Amino acid sequence: MTTTTIGSVTSADGTTIGYREIGHGPGLVILHGAMQTGDSQLELAEALSQDFTCYLPDRRGRGRSGPVGPGYGLHREVEDLAALIDATGARHVAGVSSGAIITLRTLLVRPDLDSAVVFEPPLFTDGSAPAAGLSRLDRELAAGRTAAALVTGMKAAQLGPPIFQVMPRRVLELLTGLMLKGGGKDAAPGGAPTFEELAPTLRQDIQLAAEASGDLTEYRTVRPEVLLLAGSKSPAYLRAALERLERILPHARRTLLEGLDHSATSNAAQRGRPERVAAVIHRFLGPGRAGS
């Protein structure tokens, strides 16, 4: 395994954002999605580390970073990413799922970036944004019903397999509860957060999707080059959002990863195929831009 180092930056509101650094070369920030920390894409970073210095931040409320804090919204996540960009000098960003929403919004205010990779942002362009699920999710979290809250979140974001949408809710909650117990059983003290510990952060990810969905025409002003990535087995609305973004973004290209789904960028133990994703990212950045 490639040697990594741990660092931190301070965001605009004083929140500490911790990150892992790996590799050498031009800086590339890899921003994780829901129910993840920066380590969730560690194998992707390792596959890119021969040519890029990869920074893997834990988004606020997770891992090595500080709490979500008051006044949370997409602007806070953009401030966190901007703080890391400023501290490291990174000129490339790769965002995964809700991390891709943050990446897109950051491109509006950071034209100095060279390029970005956007993997399956959960953007609802048909008016079905998941804001309605937030109140139910809040109630379930407050009542300690973590499995129920996770089911609510997955249904709101439409990220489960097709059978997830038709299976009785009580069965889904039972299966999710068993998964949570299994995940916590092997957790090491001081190790990566468990699903149980990450569950409250799902509220923030759904809020981001609700805030960013709808009209995407504001992205016509984005100047950096953008690679739009999706898996052929991912939910159709994720692919549809990228098709629309391809028509809107001035400098974008879209690639479909055949046979892969929403877990593609994750570590292999989480059903990811990071080596395939890394190969596509490397071709996009290329030897010429890798030196920028």
UniProtKB/TrEMBL annotation:
Residues annotated as domain AB hydrolase-1: 28-279
Pfam families (alphabetical): Abhydrolase_6 (PF12697)
Protein name: Alpha/beta fold hydrolase
Key words, A-Z: Hydrolase
Listed GO MF terms: hydrolase activity
InterPro entries: AB_hydrolase_1, AB_hydrolase_fold, Carboxylesterase_BioH
